[in-house]
Amino acid sequence: MNIDQSPGKNSPNYTFTLTFNPEILRVTAYISLIFMLLVGVIVTKKWVEVEPTTTVIYQLFGFNHICNVLDHEPSRTISAMLLPFWEIPFVLYLIFNFLRIQDAYREGNAPRSIFLVAATFLPVELLLTIWFRLVLVRPPITEDLFFGHYLPYLGFQLLLCLVAFENVLYFYAVKALPFNNNRSLAIAYLILLFLVTSACISVGLSVAMGHPILDLTGNETQRTIFRAIASVYMILSIPAPLCLSFLEMRRSPKHTLSFE
């Protein structure tokens, strides 16, 4: 913190300077999210008395999603208390990540197209991050409440896809992707992420609207394929970006943010 004692001023002008790597915010958010789910698993296993095969999600999909560990008391209340440790760092990350991309564009280190993508994604990402809390507000106790519960979860899936897509574009532009900034690997990752995210959202939305495009409850093969796709999606959208964040924290310069 610096104080400008310029003459003619009635009070000193305080300037706050913060130097850090934005990736620490995403690491904090993702670890907090994983911790919340782990706590949900433990609490659900020990204290939730709802039979897993009787849940609405199980009846619609033929299996329980990971969010089942957040849906029932006392896990739902505990998860709501832990949610800000995911939400606040991630909102800050979205803002600072956009500012980082904007600076790279202004300095000529990133093309205008990536800046436009980031500017377009930012408000959508912020809304989807905040709306994720509705998963805890509307538990899927009955089929009538399921759509309101599942919609923010689909938004959460889209959110992680958008952030990962935006980051690969940025890291490729600044030559910071693993394996010597491998272009083919980056394209393959983006295509696979888009395909599995589209599949998860399409199938989930069709079930939520009451017109499933797959017979998940009666066809074991289709259910197994969908669960495999959902597992690939989770790997691409959380562990992969988290590893990239750790790498970026080790090798990239810190960014300075000043408040005057």
How would you characterize the overall build of this protein?
- This protein has helices at residues 23-47, 56-61, 75-82, 84-106, 112-131, 134-137, 143-173, 178-181, 183-208, 220-237, 239-251; strands at 2-4, 13-20, 255-259.
- By secondary structure, the chain is mainly alpha-helical.
- The chain has a three-stranded antiparallel sheet, with no helix packed on it.
- A hairpin with an 8-residue loop joins β1 and β2 (13-20).
- The protein is globular and about 60 Å long.
- The chain starts with a strand and ends with a strand.
- The model has no long low-confidence stretch (mean pLDDT 87).
Key attributes of the depicted protein:
single chain, 260 residues, mainly alpha, 3-stranded antiparallel beta sheet
